[in-house]
From TrEMBL, chains A, B:
<dbReference type="InterPro" id="IPR015424">
    <property type="entry name" value="PyrdxlP-dep_Trfase"/>
</dbReference>
<dbReference type="GO" id="GO:0005737">
    <property type="term" value="C:cytoplasm"/>
</dbReference>
<dbReference type="InterPro" id="IPR015421">
    <property type="entry name" value="PyrdxlP-dep_Trfase_major"/>
</dbReference>
<dbReference type="Pfam" id="PF00282">
    <property type="entry name" value="Pyridoxal_deC"/>
</dbReference>
<protein>
    <recommendedName>
        <fullName>Tyrosine decarboxylase</fullName>
    </recommendedName>
</protein>
<feature type="modified residue" description="N6-(pyridoxal phosphate)lysine">
    <location>
        <position position="309"/>
    </location>
</feature>
<dbReference type="InterPro" id="IPR002129">
    <property type="entry name" value="PyrdxlP-dep_de-COase"/>
</dbReference>
<comment type="similarity">
    <text>Belongs to the group II decarboxylase family.</text>
</comment>
<keyword id="KW-0456">Lyase</keyword>
<dbReference type="GO" id="GO:0019752">
    <property type="term" value="P:carboxylic acid metabolic process"/>
</dbReference>
<dbReference type="InterPro" id="IPR015422">
    <property type="entry name" value="PyrdxlP-dep_Trfase_small"/>
</dbReference>
<keyword id="KW-0663">Pyridoxal phosphate</keyword>
<keyword id="KW-0210">Decarboxylase</keyword>
<dbReference type="GO" id="GO:0006520">
    <property type="term" value="P:amino acid metabolic process"/>
</dbReference>
<dbReference type="InterPro" id="IPR010977">
    <property type="entry name" value="Aromatic_deC"/>
</dbReference>
<dbReference type="GO" id="GO:0030170">
    <property type="term" value="F:pyridoxal phosphate binding"/>
</dbReference>
<dbReference type="GO" id="GO:0016831">
    <property type="term" value="F:carboxy-lyase activity"/>
</dbReference>
Length: 496, 496
C-alpha cells in the first residue's frame, strides 16, 4: 500500500482550509461593503446563466480565484440581494455576523445530528437553546424540557406543519382506522400561509378538507372564533372529523394576528390539534409590548417561529415547540437495527430524528446559540424595536402624503399601503390595482429597492417589510423618496 | 428620527464580520489539526451539558472569545467527531475545504431561493449543477433539463422520498379517488433504508402497506425481481394498488445493490413509480468501474444520491432527479397571491419551491458547484478510488487473520466483518453476537476509533465504513491494530 498515501490529495488540510476560507471571508465582506451598488431585484432575464458556463463539469481542479471571479461576474448579477438594506420584499431574511459564525461552526464540525449518540452536545445544546428561546418568548412550562414538552429545530415552517399534522392525524387514525383519513378536516383562515395547504396535501389529507375561513377588514383579517366554531359544527354534522387548527401571529400578506386564546378555547372544546404559526412575528414577542399576542398559547399543542426571518439567524432555522413530544415521536420514529445504540435503548435520551422529517440533521442549534449569546436578550429586543421604529417612521411618511393611504394599521414592521386613485374619484379597485402595480414595477425595476404586493379583502396593496439587517433610517427615507418620485410619474401618465 | 441611527447597532458590519469570521476560521482549522486527540465517539454521559450553562439566555452580549472558550470546554467533548480520520461508523459525512467555502458563500449571500425571481442565479445554477452531476453519473437525457426532466437539491433522502411518494400517490388518487389511499402499496426490500417507511407514513399511506420483501445471503441481499413480481401480483389479486418501488444502490447495513434494470422492467410492467436511492454509493458511480450498478436507470422515475455523504460536500445536500418534474409540481405547487410575479406567470421559469417541501430554500447549489469546480471530475474519481482502495486494504487485513471473517464481499468502501467464535466450534450466532458486541464496544470506548454494527440475515457484524475525508492509510492500519488488540482481550475473557 506504499503508493497510496503519497498520491493522496488532502481536501481538508488545515492550512489550505484556513487560507482559502479567509479569501472567501474577504470576498463576502466586500460583497456587504458594495451591496448597495447592485440592483436589489436582479435584472437578468430567464436563461441568462446557461451561456456563461460550460455544460459539463470540469475534468480538472479550478482555482479559487477563478471561481470567485465567476461568482462576481455571473452569479452576483443574478442574485436578488436579500441582504441589501434596500430589500423590503416578502419578509426579511436576517443574516448577521453572529449567525454566520454559527453557520461556520456548524459546517466546520459537520456532525450528523440524528441521535444523541451521534453528538450528545448537538442534542443537548438544542434542548438548552430551545428552552432559552421558550423563556424569552415566555412560553408556558409545558413547552419546555423541564415540563415534559420540548423544542426542536426544523428547516422551515412547512416541515413543522407537516410533522405536527402527521402527529395529529395519526392520533385520530389510530382510534378511527386509516379509512378516516378522507374525513379529517383542517381549519385556518383565508390569510394562513400556503404552507398549510401544502402540508395537508403532503400528509395525505384531501386538500378539499382544508377550511380557509373568511376574514375581513373590520377585524383586521384575524380569524373569528365564532366563524371557526360554526365551521366545526357544520363539519361534525356532515360526518367529518375536525383535526387541526392553524392560527397565525403575523400573517404574510398583512401581518394580521389571530386571537390565540379564543381560538385555543374552541380547539380544546372540540379536541383539535392547535398549532400557532408565528414564523415572522414570533421574534417580536421577545419584547413585552408584543408578547400579549401570544396570550393563550398554553392552549396550543404546538408553536413555531423562524429565527431565520427576523432574529439575525442565517438560513435555515425554524423553532418548533410541542407540549407532547411523544405524539411527534409516535408518528416519526424509526428504529432500524443499524441505528440502535445503548444510549437510545437504555438512557432515555432524545433522538431528534424522531421529531422531524430527515435523518441527516445539521447542528444548527449551535448557530442559534451563538446568535443569542453574541447579542443577548437586551440587544435582540433593541434590534426588533429599531425595525418597528423604522417601519413606524415609514408609515408616518406615507400618512403625510395625501396621494397615499395606509391600508391596514401596522402591527409589527410591515407597512401595507397604496396609492389612491385620486381624492375626488369614485372608488375604483381596478384602477387602483393598475396604478399600484405600475408603481411597484417602477420601484423594483429601478433596482434601488425591492418590495412585493398582496391582495387582501379584494384590495391590492404594496407591502413594505422593514427589517433587513443592514437597513438604516437613510434607506427608508431613500425608499420613500423613490416611491414618491415613481408615484408622480405613474399618476402623470395614468389614463383614467 | 435623529436618535435612531446613532443608537443603532450593526450586526453585519463588514469589518467586524471579517475579523470575527477569521477568528472562527482559525478556531476550526485548529480543531482539524487537533482532531485526532479527541475520543471519536463522545464519552460524555446523558445530561452532561445542562450544568455547564445558565438555564436562561444572557441579557447582555457576550464576547466571541468567551463563546469559543465554551465551545472548547463544553461542546467539543460532547461531539462525536464525524470529521475524525478514525471515524468509520454509519457512512462518512465528507466535509472539505471546498464544501466549506461553498457553505460560507451560501450563508453569506443568504438568499431565500424559493422561486426564480428571488434569485435567478440560485435557480439557474441549481439547474446547471444538477445537469453537471447527471452527466458525471451518466444519467440518461430524460433526467436532464434539456430532456424535459431535471434535478433539484433536497436536504435529505427522506425529503426526496416524501416528495416522490406524494407525486406518485397523487397521480393514482386523481384517477381512483382519495379513498384509494388505503389501498396503495409500496415495495422495497428488507434492506431498504428506514427513510422509506417514514416517508410512507408521512404521506398518509398505511405503514402496513409497505412490503419489505425478503433478501438473503446467496443474492448478496439484493431484491429479486421475481420476489417483487410475485408480491405485486398477490397484492393486485387482493384488491391493492401497487404504487411505488424503492430500489437501493448501496444499502446502509451492508452496501447491497438491487438489480436496477430488472426491477425497472417489473416496475414499468405494473406501472409503479420507480425510485432509486443511491444515497451512499451514488457518488461512486462517477467512476466507470462502478457505473454499471446504475444500468437500467432509464427505467426509473426518480433517482437520488447524497453528496453530503461521500462527495466532499458539507451537510446538507441531496440530489434528486426526476424524469417528469410536472408530477412533483402537481403535488407540491402552491400559488398564493403574495408570491405571484411576472416571471412565474409568463416566462416559464422554474420555481424550485414546487419541487420540494419547504418554501425557505438555501442556495446550496453554490456549494455543490464549488465542490465540483474546485476538484474536477478526475480528482473526485481519485477521491472515491482512494477510499475504495483503503477499504480493500482493510478487507485484506481482516482476511489474513483467521480469527475474523469478511461477512459479505465488499462492493464499495464498506467492509462488513466479524470475529468468529472459534474455528472448531459449532456455529453459534448468539455467542458470535456477544463477542462482536464486546469487541465493538471495546473499540468505541477506547475513543481511538468509532464503528457501528448491523444485523443482516440474522448475522450480527461490524461495519467499517472507510471514507472520512481525513482518513489515510495509517488510520486504517491503526484501526486494524486496535481491533486485533481488543479481539485478543475479548477472546481471552470469553466465556463459552
Amino acid at each position: 500500500m506504499a503508493s497510496l498515501s503519497t498520491n493522496a490529495f488532502h481536501p481538508l488540510e488545515p492550512t489550505d482550509f484556513s487560507q482559502d476560507s479567509k479569501k472567501v471571508i474577504d470576498f463576502i465582506a466586500d460583497y456587504y461593503k458594495n451591496i448597495e451598488k447592485y440592483p436589489v431585484l436582479s435584472q437578468v432575464k430567464p436563461g441568462y446563466l446557461k451561456p456563461q458556463f460550460p455544460d459539463t463539469a470540469p475534468y480538472s481542479p479550478e482555482s479559487l480565484e477563478d471561481i470567485l471571479k465567476d461568482i462576481d461576474a455571473s452569479i452576483i448579477p443574478g442574485l436578488t440581494h436579500w441582504q441589501s438594506p434596500n430589500f423590503f420584499a416578502y419578509f426579511q431574511a436576517n443574516a448577521s455576523t453572529a449567525g454566520f459564525l454559527g453557520e461556520m461552526l456548524c459546517s466546520g464540525f459537520n456532525v450528523v445530528n440524528f441521535g444523541w449518540i451521534t453528538s450528545p452536545a448537538a442534542t443537548e445544546l438544542e434542548t438548552l437553546v430551545m428552552d432559552w428561546m421558550a423563556k424569552m418568548l415566555e412560553l408556558p412550562p409545558p413547552f419546555m424540557s423541564s415540563g415534559n414538552g420540548g423544542g426542536v429545530l426544523h428547516s422551515s415552517t412547512c416541515e413543522a406543519i407537516v410533522c405536527t399534522l402527521a402527529a395529529a392525524r395519526d392520533k385520530v387514525l389510530t382510534k378511527n382506522g386509516h379509512e378516516a383519513i378522507t374525513k379529517l378536516v383542517v381549519y385556518s383562515s383565508d390569510q394562513t400561509h400556503s404552507s398549510l395547504q401544502k402540508g395537508v396535501k403532503l400528509v395525505g389529507i384531501p386538500p378539499t378538507n382544508v377550511r380557509c375561513l373568511p376574514t375581513a377588514f373590520p377585524e383586521g383579517f384575524s380569524l373569528s372564533p365564532l366563524t371557526l366554531e360554526a365551521a366545526i359544527r357544520k363539519d361534525i354534522k356532515s360526518g367529518f372529523i375536525p383535526l387541526y387548527l392553524c392560527g397565525t401571529v403575523g400573517t404574510t400578506a398583512c401581518g394580521a394576528v389571530d386571537p390565540v386564546g379564543k381560538l385555543g378555547k374552541v380547539a380544546r372544546k372540540y379536541n383539535l390539534w392547535f398549532h400557532i404559526d408565528a414564523a415572522y412575528a414570533g421574534s417580536a414577542c421577545i419584547c413585552p409590548e408584543f408578547r400579549h399576542y401570544l396570550d393563550g398559547v398554553e392552549l396550543a399543542d404546538s408553536f413555531s417561529m423562524n429565527p431565520h426571518k427576523w432574529f439575525l439567524t442565517n438560513m435555515d432555522c425554524c423553532c418548533l415547540w410541542v407540549q407532547n413530544p411523544d405524539s411527534l415521536i409516535e408518528s416519526l420514529s424509526t428504529k432500524p437495527e443499524y441505528l440502535r445504540n445503548g444510549a437510545t435503548d437504555t438512557l432515555n435520551v432524545i433522538d431528534y430524528k424522531d421529531w422531524q422529517i430527515a435523518l441527516s440533521r445539521r447542528f444548527i442549534a449551535l448557530k442559534l446559540w451563538v446568535v443569542i449569546r453574541r447579542h443577548g436578550l437586551a440587544t435582540l429586543r433593541f434590534h426588533i424595536r429599531s425595525d418597528v421604529k423604522l417601519a413606524s417612521y415609514f408609515e408616518s411618511l406615507v400618512a403625510k402624503d395625501s396621494r397615499f393611504e395606509v391600508v391596514l394599521p401596522r402591527k409589527f414592521a410591515l407597512v401595507c399601503f397604496r396609492l389612491k386613485a385620486g381624492k375626488n374619484k369614485a372608488h375604483n379597485e381596478n384602477l387602483n390595482q393598475r396604478l399600484n402595480k405600475k408603481l411597484l414595477q417602477g420601484v423594483n425595476e429601478s433596482g434601488n429597492a425591492f418590495m412585493t404586493h398582496a391582495v387582501v379583502g379584494g384590495v391590492y396593496f404594496i407591502r413594505c417589510a422593514v427589517g433587513s439587517t443592514l437597513t438604516e433610517e437613510r434607506h427608508v427615507e431613500g425608499l420613500w423618496k423613490l416611491i414618491q418620485d415613481k408615484a408622480t410619474k405613474v399618476l402623470l401618465n395614468a389614463t383614467y
